[in-house]
Specification:
This protein has helices spanning 2-19, 48-56, 60-71, 95-99, 101-108, 138-156, 172-188, 203-216, 227-247, 259-263, 266-276, 312-324, 341-351, 388-395, 397-405, 417-421, 428-448, 467-489, 493-512, 520-543; strands at 33-34, 44-46, 78-84, 88-93, 122-126, 160-167, 254-257, 280-283, 286-289, 300-303, 329-335, 359-364, 367-371, 374-375, 413-416. With 552 residues, it is α/β, with parallel strands linked by helices. Among the domains are: 2-93, Arginyl tRNA synthetase N-terminal domain (Gyrase A, domain 2), CATH 3.30.1360; 99-115 and 426-543, Isoleucyl-tRNA Synthetase, Domain 1 (Orthogonal Bundle), CATH 1.10.730; 172-247, no CATH class. It has a five-stranded parallel beta sheet. A four-stranded antiparallel beta sheet has the order 1-2-4-3. The longest helix has 24 residues, at 520-543. The two termini are 34 Å apart. It binds one RNA strand of 76 nucleotides through helix 2, strand 9, strand 10, helix 13 and helix 17.
Length: 552
RNA sequence: GCCCUCGUAGCUCAGGGGAUAGAGCACAGGAUUCCUAAUCCUGGGGCCGUAGGUUCGAUUCCUACCGGGGGCACCA
């Protein structure tokens, strides 16, 4: 907001400069309002003079002098503007501007930070998409939370979001799952059985088999088909996955079964369409897609010589379906192990006339669990992997969410179990939540003492003048812009960093200044500051799917 | 071999075409008659992987190389 006002001011000066012949219009749109790293360099800076000078073969500091001349009277926005360094113009914003942020923030309350930059655009966020072969692992957990946080960011910025879970219950994996279940079933009945070589060894298979014995007795002992076992397992596991997701506060709008693509002929339609464009051919009994036409090193099989499609074909059909359903933006959250599928799918939809720039793939790296400074080794197939449920049992949803959002997606995530378990200062989750609780506590103290905040319209914000207060106000002022940027970049970790930083600033302020004092006016002003901080902590935490406890 | 990704403080990581590169942890020391000490304050700590290139300016962009991770199936 404040940045925009400055930008507009600058643009006007730039145009006037063109009019006066100081410079040409060549630099229009090429200069920026930046955030200086150092406080001594002001609140904002512009590189306008250097950009213009570069294009016009002028001296940067002379251009900057012209700019200051055009700026003339500073108005109610700028306190001071000065030329610095190689030709920066640094701007110092009036304190009153920062102070005026507070009433507006408090007026907006829960809406502060929200925006309409999405303008209702329809966005599909696809994530988790794990086939129901077992409980969610920590890797899925990261993806679930990352995907959900991205969805939340988009919802907070005026996008119409659909969360979708894509799965396939027809593949080899699921067959092995059914066979594993059958083997356990027969085992419980004391009948001869053969456990599949690459079967699923988790205890949950036993649970499912036991349940099957309970409900069906031994009536399945001679069942030739794997189907009933598979179905029972799938159902149980899906219920389990959904329960885990619910514990995390994640609710999908839609579960898309790959099978529907076969049933309604979408798979065949893709092959036919590609064939029409001469992009498929047959060789060695298989059907190949000419991905080399799209810059790839070799062509790819889309239908095996067994007649079964490879994963690429349904993936392409699925994405075409997303386009058909009218989404303006399709966000896929994948683990880095699925990275190879991306180019094939993009090539497929592009070949069939879709705009692949509407698809954004967020690839996240793996999670390493750390215990006592050592890595916890995990194997999915074997029984020894840590599930999201176990993590939730240990540390709770807020901690799990926070830890999984602490790193940007492309960075590997080290999940320190010991740190996560600590209910203390060490744990960054509590550091942030404690700030919120403290703010609530101050509010309660004031109420208990009968100290009233007074009316918002009359809040004496001009009394907020200490460095700590102004810094807090600046941070609060930057929140909406931060949310917008985080949403468009699909980077929820920025919110986490912001909250940690804000918590640090608040705790610093708190230990140096008293909110409730004999100075009635100052107390009122600070109570409103407390209210503004409380709102932003709350909005930030809730936006990331976490709770904002009022006491700890 | 090819593709993707990462390389920033002892550790885990932010940042990012600009002016003196940050946080947390760890380490050392200190703060509580007073709104929650799950807090705060002070201190040391860095050829931003290496070498080139683009630029007025590169830790940031480009190229190559080195190192870690992931992928390169008629598995998903």
């Amino acid at each position: 907001m404040i940045r925009e006002r400055l930008q507009e001011r600058l643009d006007r000066c730039f145009d006037q400069g063109v009019g006066k012949g100081f410079w040409s219009a060549a630099a229009a749109g090429r200069y920026a309002v930046e955030d200086p790293k150092q406080a001594a360099h002001g609140d904002f800076a512009t590189n306008l003079a250097m950009v213009v000078a570069g294009l016009e073969k002028q001296k940067p500091r002379e251009v900057a002098a012209h700019l200051l001349e055009l700026l003339g009277d500073h108005g109610d926005l700028i306190e001071k503007a000065e030329i610095a360094g190689p030709g920066f113009v640094n701007f110092f914003i009036r304190e009153t501007v920062w102070q005026s942020v507070l009433p507006e923030l408090c007026r907006q309350g829960p809406a502060y930070g929200r925006s309409d930059i999405g303008q209702g655009r329809k966005v599909l966020v696809e994530f988790v998409s794990a086939n129901p072969t077992g409980p969610l692992s920590v890797g899925h957990g990261r993806q679930a939370i990352l995907g959900d946080a991205i969805a939340r960011l988009l919802q907070h910025t005026g996008h119409t979001v659909t969360r979708e879970y894509y799965y396939n219950d027809a593949g080899r994996q699921m067959r092995v799952l059914g066979e594993s279940t059958r083997a356990r079933y027969l085992e419980i009945l004391g009948l001869p059985h053969q456990f599949p070589e690459d079967g699923y060894q988790g205890e949950y298979i036993n649970d499912i088999a036991r349940q099957l014995v309970k409900t069906r007795g031994d009536e399945l002992k001679d069942e030739p088909a794997v189907q009933p076992f598979k179905e029972a397992a799938e159902q149980a596991i899906f219920a389990d996955i959904n329960a885990t997701l619910a514990r995390l506060g994640i609710v999908f709008d839609n579960y898309f079964n790959e099978h529907t693509l076969y049933d309604n002929g979408k798979i065949d339609a893709v092959v036919a369409a590609l064939r029409d464009k001469g992009l498929v051919y047959e060789q060695d009994g298989a059907v190949w897609f000419r991905t080399t036409e799209f810059g790839m090193d070799k062509d790819r099989v889309i239908i095996k010589n067994t007649g079964e499609p490879t994963y690429r074909l349904p993936d392409i059909a699925y994405h075409l379906e997303k386009f058909r359903r009218g989404f303006d933006w399709m966000v896929n959250v994948f683990g880095s192990d699925h990275i190879a599928t991306v180019p094939d799918v993009l090539a497929g939809i592009k070949a069939l006339g879709c705009d692949d720039s509407k698809v954004t793939v967020v690839i996240h790296q793996f999670v390493t669990l750390m215990q006592g400074g050592k890595q916890v080794k995990m194997s999915t197939r074997k029984a020894n992997f840590v599930t999201v449920d176990e993590l939730l049992d240990e540390v709770g949803a807020d901690v799990v969410r926070f830890f999984f959002l602490m790193r940007r997606a492309e960075a590997p995530l080290e999940f320190d179990l010991e740190l996560a378990r600590q209910q203390s200062q060490e744990n960054p989750v509590y550091y942030v939540q404690y700030a919120h609780a403290r703010l609530c506590s101050v509010r309660q103290q004031a109420e208990a003492k009968g100290v009233l905040r007074g009316r918002l319209e009359e809040a004496p914000v001009a009394r907020l003048t200490t460095d700590e207060e102004i810094e807090l106000l600046k941070a609060l002022a930057s929140f909406p812009e931060l949310v917008s940027h985080a949403a468009l970049a699909l980077e929820p970790h920025r919110i986490i960093y912001f909250l940690q930083d804000l918590a640090g600033r608040f705790h610093g302020f708190y230990s140096r200044h008293r909110v409730i004092s004999d100075d009635h006016e100052l107390t009122q002003a600070r109570l409103w500051l407390v209210e503004g901080l409380r709102i932003v902590f709350r909005n930030g935490l809730v936006m990331m799917g976490m709770t904002a406890p009022e006491s700890m």
